[in-house]
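Cont'd.
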Amino acid sequence: MRAVEIAKQVSSGEISARSVLEQHFETINNLETQVNAFNIVTIEEALKEADEIDSKIASGEKLGPLAGVPIAVKDNICTRGLETTCSSKILEGWKPPYNATVIDKLKQADAILIGKTNCDEFAMGSSTENSAFGPTRNPHNLELVPGGSSGGSAAAVAAGFSPLALGSDTGGSIRQPAALCGVVGVKPTYGRVSRYGLVAFASSLDQIGPFANTVSDAALSLEIISGYDPRDSTSISEDSPDILGVLNEGIEGMRIGVIEELSGKGLDGISTDVLSRVEEATKVFSKAGAIVESASVPASTYGLSAYYVIAPAEASSNLARYDGIRFGPRTEAATTAETMTATRTKGFGDEVKRRIMLGTYALSAGYYDAYYGKSQKVRTLIMNDFAEAYEKFDILISPTAPTTAFPLGEKTTDPMQMYLQDVCTIPSNLAGHPAMSVPFGLGSDGMPIGVQILAPAMAEQNMFRAARVLELESGE
Amino acid sequence: MVNELNDSSLNGWETVIGLEVHAELATKTKMFSSALNSFGGAPNSNTDPVSLGLPGSLPVLNEKAVELAIRVGLALNCQVQKSVFARKNYFYPDMPKAYQISQFDLPINKDGWLELPDGRRIGIERAHLEEDTGKITHIGGGGRIHEASYSLIDYNRSGVPLIEIVGAPDLRSSEDAKEYVSELRAILVTIGASDGKMEEGSLRVDCNVSVRKEEDEEFGTRCEIKNINSLRSLGKAIEYEARRQVELIESGQNVEQQTRHWDEAEGRTHKLRSKEEAFDYRYFPEPDLVPVEPSTEWINEIADSLPPLPRERRHELAKAVGVGPTETSLVVQRNLDGFAVEAISLKADPSRVLVHLENNLADGIGELTAKSFALLTLMEVDGELTATQAKTVLADLVKSGGNPKEIAANHGFESMDNSEIEEIVDRIIEENLDDWNAYVDGDEVEKKKKSGFFVGLVMKETKGQADGKIVNQILSAKSAN
C-alpha cells in the first residue's frame, strides 16, 4: 500500500497502525535473510509507537500526515539511543544521544521508524557491497546488487519492507540504487533538508532524501523532511515546497532538455537499453505537451574527476574523528598515536581507506592548488554550464545509472568501474541542484531502469510534475 | 646543543620578536554550539554533541563571538572583512573532530596596529576567529606525556571561541614583548572581549624569536616558543632563546627553524619539533559553515559602542597633566585615569596627582574622592603639607575618607618655618662635623649619600614635619658658603 493511503486510512481509523506494521514485518520476516536490507529492525519500539498512534486515533486526536506509515532510515542518520553505524565496524555499538532533524520531523508527522538500513560503509560505494555487515541484494534478482550507497533503503522499499525510506545522496547514492531497484529516489536541493544528524561523508555534497514506490509518496515525505533548520548553517531559509499540490498539473509548455553529454554522446559505457528508455521518456514528455530538445552541459563530463577529489578531500577530514578516543570500539596500542592508527586500521574497510588516502593527498601542502583548487574550479564551471542550460530549459533529463543492476562482485576489484556508476548523478551534487530518479520500464535483462530528472536549485515542483508524467505512462 | 649559557650580553646582536596571542572570547556559550563557555566546571560538564565532535553534529556560528572579534579588530585598527572558516586538520585527542575550525586565507581582521605606551606602533598582521581545544591531564610519570600511565581529557574548553592575534615581528626586546602583551591585554579587557587571565589560560602567548646583527636587514631564522604562562616567563624565554641563538651562531653553527617548548622549572627552551617535522594542516574551506559577511552598518554600530581605549586614555590624561603619554601609562593601567582627570578638573595640581596615583595609590583609591584629592594636592603645593605628611593624610583619606584639612590638623601637621629648620640643621652639622666635611668635599655620589644622612636626621628631629626639599636647599647653600 502507498504511504499516502496508509496515512489516510490510519487517520480515519479504517485500519490500525499496528496491522500496517505487522503486515510489513511479515514481509521482512519472509525475505530479509535473503535481501539483508537492514542493519537493525526495531520491531518492539515500532509496535509500541503504532499502539500509541492507534490509541490517539481512538481518542479522536488528529494525527500527522504520515500517521502510522512505516519508514526505514539509512544507517548514517542519527537516531537517539539506537545504534547508528554507517555500516562500519568503527561505529559498531555507537548509540547517538540525539536525533537527526529529519528523524524529529518524521516523528512529528507520526511516521514509525522500523529500522536502520544497510549501506556502503560511510556511504562510499555504488553497490552496498562495501558494508561491514555484508551486502544487500537486489529484491528483483538476488544475484544482483541493489546499487548504493543507500542500497538497503532502496531494497527495503522495492521488497515491500517499507513504503518509505530515507537515504543520503553525495554523488548519486539515492538515485542510482532507486534506478537499480525500480523505485523513486530524490536528491533535494542542497540545503533543502537539514543535514543535522546525518553522519558526514562529504559535507558540501551530502543531502538526505526519500525513497518511495510512487512519485506522490516521495513528494509527501520530501515535504515533511524539508525546511529551514537553525542547527544546519547550510540550511536554506525557506519553508517546505508544496509539491503534492502541483503534482498533477502536467507539463504543457515545459521546456525539457536532454543532456547530450550524459546521454551517450560524451560518455562511453551507457547501455543501449538505458539510452532507449531515456529516448522513450522524451517521447512521453513531447506527447504531454512539453518542448523537448537536446541540451548541452559540457563541463558535466568532468564531474566525476572533480568529485573524486572534492568528496574524498572532505571525507578525509570528516572521518578523522573516528579514532577510538571518545566513542566507538578502540584497539589499544602502546601510545595514543598508535592506538588511533590501530583503531582506524581495524575499523575502516578498504574503500573508506582508499578515499581517506586520496583526499589526504589532494589536500596536502604543494598539491592543494593542483587538485582541490582545480576541482573547485571545475565545480564552478559545471554550475555555470547548468545555469546557461537553465536559461533555455525548465528541467533536464538524462539516464540515472549507465546500466541496470549488475552481479555482486562484478566491480568490487575495479574501483574505477564502480565509480562510473555515478557519472550521470554526480553533476547535480556538485551544482547543489535537485534531481530524482523515476522508474521507467525494464531493460532486456528484465531489470528496472530509471530516468533522471534534473532541475535548478529550489525547482523541485517542476521536477516532480515531470516525474509524475512518466509515472502515469508506466501505469501507476 | 648548548647546555650552559653564560649571561653575556648580546653585544652587537638584535633580537627580533613576533607574538601570536590567543585570547578566549567572553561569550556565554561556545563558538559553534549552545554549550556553556565557562571556566572551572566539573570535567566534561559543559559539552554537547558539537563540542564533542560527535558524528552528525554540525557547527552553528555564535554571533556574539563574531561581534567580539570585530571589537578586537576595530580596537587594533584592523580592516574588518568578509571571512571564511577553514578546517585545520591534525590528530590529537584534545581535538574531538581531529580538525580545528579556524580561519586561514580570509581572516575576519587584518592589517592593524597596536601602540605601545612609548608611542611605537607594532603591526598586527591579522586577528582571526578559531575554536579552542579540550584539555589533557597526564596522570603518572610526573605529568609528562611519555611517562604517563594514562591521560584524562576535559572537553569543557573544546569549542570555546578564541581570537588569535598575530603580531608583526616589530618587537626588539623582552621588555617590548611584555609591554605589548600588557597593552593588548588591557585593550581586550577594556573592550569586554576577554577577561585576559593568563593564569587561567584565557590569554596565551606563542613567541617567535630570531636574532640578527644590528646592521643586518634580513631577519635570522626564527624559533617559535610555546608553553609560556606568564609575562615573567615570556621575558625569560625570549632572553634565553636569544642567547641560545647568538651562541649557536657565534660558535659557527646555524639556527634551525624549530618549535620549542619553554620549561619553566629549568628556565630553558627545549626542541619540540623541527620545520621538517611540522604538521601539514591540510587547510581547506569549512563546508559546514557559510562565509561571514558583517554589514558596514553592524561594524559601525560596534565601532560606536567601543569605550575609550588605553591609548586614548593615556593621551587624554597626558594632555590634562601636561606630560608625554608614556608617563601616564601606569595610571591608565591601574584604571585610575578617569579619577585623575576628574581631580585635575577640580583644580588639583596635575603633577602631584600623577605622583600620588603612581606611587601611593597602587592598591586603589578606597574612600578617596576626587574633591578631597584635589584639595590635598593644593595643600602640598601651597606648602601646608610636606610630601611625607601628604602621604599620611592620603592614606587616611583612602581608608576612611574625610576632609584633608581636618585630618592634617588632627595629625598636628603644620609646615615649619625655614628659619626654624635652619637652626636644627646648624645644630646637627655641629654634632656631625666629620660627615659634614665629607659632604662638602665629596664628589656627587658622596654628596648624595651624605645629604640623605642629614635629611634623615632632620626629619627625625622634626618628626617628619620638615620639607625634605627645603632641607636639601639649606644644606646646599651652607656648603657653598
